[in-house]
Specification:
The chain is mainly alpha-helical. The chain folds into four domains: 144 residues, 3-Layer(aba) Sandwich (Rossmann fold); 59 residues; 194 residues, Tetratricopeptide repeat domain (Serine Threonine Protein Phosphatase 5, Tetratricopeptide repeat), CATH 1.25.40; 56 residues, Winged helix-like DNA-binding domain superfamily/Winged helix DNA-binding domain (Arc Repressor Mutant, subunit A). It is 60% helix and 6% strand. The strands form two sheets. It has a five-stranded parallel beta sheet with strand order 2-3-4-1-5, sandwiched between helices. The chain starts with 19 loop residues before the first helix and ends in a 6-residue tail after the last helix.
Amino acid sequence: MSEAKTGTGAAPHWPFLGRDEEVRVAVAASRPGVVLSARRAGLGRTSTARRAAAVWLAGGGRTEWVTATRSTATIPFGAVRHLLADPDPGGDRPAALRKVRTRLHGALVVVDDAHLLDDASAAAVHHLATAGDAVLLVTTREGEPAPDAVTSLWKDEVLARVELPPLSVAATAGVLREALGGPADEVSARLLHERSQGVPARLRDLVTSARRSGELAPGRAGLWRYRPTGSLTPPRVRTGMGLVRAFLDGTLPGAGGLAAERYRAAVRTGSAADAGGWAVGRGVVARLRGDVSTAIEALHQAVTLLDGPEPAGPVRLCCAELASAHALAGDAARARQWLDQAVTAGRGFEPWVELAAAWTAAAGGDSLRGARHARAAAAVARDRGDHAFEATALYDAARLGSPRPVRRRLDELTGLLPGPAAPVLAAAATALASGDATALDGTAAAFEDLGMPLLAAEAATTAALAHQRAGRAVAAVRSREHAASARLECPLARTPLLLVERLVGLTPRERDIAAMAGEGLSSPAIARRLELSVRTVDNHLGRVYAKLGVTGRRALRAVLQPRGTR
């Protein structure tokens, strides 16, 4: 399947998928067996029978194959002649059939295209079925004239009948994933399913043709995109300021639910532009809430659906959000890859790109540089009059270790922005700057009420540390429990504030160096990344080891490992 990943027009390896249940029924059938019927050609009767026979053989059984054709339909015993001890139709037929029964005892006998059997062969197959010495797997096509001995197999309930349906949308997506070496976006999978009508043979021909013409090709996120000629429409991105305002209004969870609902509706109608726009909305909401896996999945769909000759702004937003989402997951390498694409993807959404640079820097271990990028993003948003984005970027700077420089401006924004979230952001930044445990507990509860579990977990984790430093053990336990509860909704998120309790007493620079050393970076590598000397890095590490009571990088890695994964 390596050829499928190149995007060339070469015919892909075509997998057998979507018929697992039919194969299971056929192989598990007790004597006398089953009939696989299909309403149309191309649904995979023969390939399903072949797979069932292969499974039967793999289990130690024997198989015999009978293939009926139009050319043998006029010859008595033409299809089963190879099974008869005496192929002369004038011989002792009952004796010959008894020998066949003995020979085939316990075997799986596949009779393919039984509707084409000659009458004598059909009678022989019927005899085998009623005798029960072998297990029969008979395939036939509905609506075709067939010998009475064949139709009576299911009409008289001699064999169980299993209808082979068209592939489902999910099965079509699975076939595409295997054939192409990677998944297609959801709109493309549904469109290919509709155009092939769930018929595997049609799907194979359609995919082969579309790859040769370039209508089916891989996108930025590795998802395959099907763009039939004449199907391009301008993207309509329902995100940006509206979703940030939904956060500040305290309606973000509802906005996320609406985006998911509208996305599914657009997928069902095959509208790539609408689906792409709503996928961005799903991704942004999930990222703001800390649901990293949902954010990445939705944004992969979005960047695939929106990429093309249309204006690049929406694609730039997708790339920036993917950088931020991967950074929240602690994957600095992928975050940098998506950030590079955002930088080169045209114009627009500059504050989003700058904020993505902030979280990418933090994921790479330089949270202080990340805070500077966040403040720069806030400045760009302020110049454009986008106070909603400015507030979120300023609070991100506070989360990345710079709460003091931003708290005054956040206080000012509470008078400019409607909704309940702006005052909470301002109060949280002030609490982070002062280390006020009680205030942090309060903001954690407020963030949870706003549907922001990641921010709640960060505030509660920081509150636990502040309580611990003040000697309030019971209060610290309560805050940790609150943090653990909030993290259930964002289990993959890794941010500096979620690590802070394990790095008690370290300065921001020491936390950055400890995080990078815990990831396995050498002192020279850390020095290059932070533009420090190797000696300075080693001095910081020495102080880190002393403060945390560890003796080396291996022990430091154990301290940094999230609870519940040790």
